[in-house]
Amino acid sequence: MKLHFLHKNLKSNFEFSHHKERQFLRLWHYHPEIELVYIKQGKGTLFAGDFIGTFEEGNLFLIGKNIPHMFQSSSKNFSEAYVLHLNQSFFEAIESNKEEFQYIRLIHNLSERGATFHSFKKNKIENLLFQLRELPVPLQAINILQVFYSLSVHSNNTYLGSVNWLNHHQVSDQRLSEVMEFLMLNFKEDISLEKIAGIAGMNKTAFCRFFKQHTGKSFITYLNELRINYSCKLLKEVHSNYSISKSCFASGFNSLSYYNRIFKKTIGLTPSEYLKRSI
């Protein structure tokens, strides 16, 4: 299975779309456009770069150019989203007016690692995006600027991808992309070094050297961090003592003691401490 490149072929510098379906596109893919996604309805798991987390109604995500991502719906009801794609040229044209549009540069910079927004004016943003369906292109552009300005002054944000991932990410390396896609889709399963080296078409020694060179981490460290990130997502969803052991095995670990040790090393807290802070 390959990482999919989706070229949007936008008719202008931006394009709005409204999605309402049983499942969002379950495809590990990337594209050169920057994407703003508002979740109107539904819930599930967002995979973006090396980020794994929950999406649900009212969430707003900014996904940068060429960041591999996938929204995996888990709701039994319909999933609905407002999606805005923007070409790089949209930002470049506006940023040439440096002083008046500092907030556009802020949003553009946030997109490099991807971001999720908190404490934004939900009703205002939702209405501005919804109006894009009927407005002519010049007025759509004005709404988009209002969205970005509001987010720059009335919200907090959390980055999705890590700095390490951004520094090492190369969509042009097809072999690495296939390895990463396999890990993102199968990290909950038992993955041997021999298996993953075979995906890359290498022997185990060559693969370990290749993976460390391209990610800055050993294979087992990277895999453990993926699993811990997913475990954190599960712990936030279920607040009970049982959820610690459940999240351990559901994330791909087969030893609770090893899981506890890796969790503390990665997060800086024990699972119990993390759970208490999440409540």
TrEMBL record:
Alphabetized SMART domains for the sequence: HTH_ARAC (SM00342)
InterPro entries noted in UniProt: AraC-bd, Homeodomain-like_sf, HTH_AraC, HTH_AraC-typ_CS, RmlC-like_jellyroll, RmlC_Cupin_sf
Alphabetical list of SUPFAM superfamilies matching this protein: Homeodomain-like, RmlC-like cupins
Matches recorded under Pfam families: AraC_binding (PF02311), HTH_18 (PF12833)
The keyword ATP-binding is annotated on this UniProt entry: no
Domain of life: Bacteria
Keywords carried by this UniProt record: DNA-binding, Transcription, Transcription regulation
Residue ranges occupied by any HTH araC/xylS-type domain in the UniProt entry: 177-277
Protein name as catalogued: Helix-turn-helix domain-containing protein
Species classification: Bacteria, Pseudomonadati, Bacteroidota, Flavobacteriia, Flavobacteriales
